[in-house]
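So, can you check?
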Amino acid sequence: MERTAFLTATVLSTISFLLGVQFICFLHDYRVLFLPTLEPEHIDAGFGFYSTFAAAPQAVKVFLHAMIGLALVSLLGKLHSWNDAALFFDGGSIVALMAGICLYLSVSLPAIHTITTPLESESHADRVEALRVLGASNTMIVIALVGVLVLQAGQWWASVEVAKEIQREKEQRRERRKSRSASASLNKQERDRVVKGLKAE
């Protein structure tokens, strides 16, 4: 139980950290995705942000990827219990997290490379399109990460309900034992009265 609680806390903390990173990105992504007109200053702000992001020290990138790996390892550790709750909730969380990781590797990273270090054949329009694609990818990654949190919350709720049901069953068994004990005591008293009556006769 303590091991599962520790792994759950690790999953929640790492996923929350990754959502925080995505929230920072969304401050620039929403301008590209949801504003009716895309102004040049919005494009320049997005290019500048992701260029700074790509030029971050190696330690920052290692830490970010370590958080992703830690979340995945923790979910695999929870799945190791191999009960119904783990298969459904932790298995679903792994699927959602893997979907986010696949989006990050196959869409987000190539788009960042196009924005920050474009090839000679890639025009300014290609970089703007990459910025849009990156924003859409980040939004889908957020949905996947929120899905992990929802599944983990669902697992907690299910465990609470199961514990309540077990407690109710224990109380019902206890009441049945008391009822049988009281019935047996009454039957014994009745037999004793009958025996005394017979002796008196």
Notes: The mean pLDDT is 86.
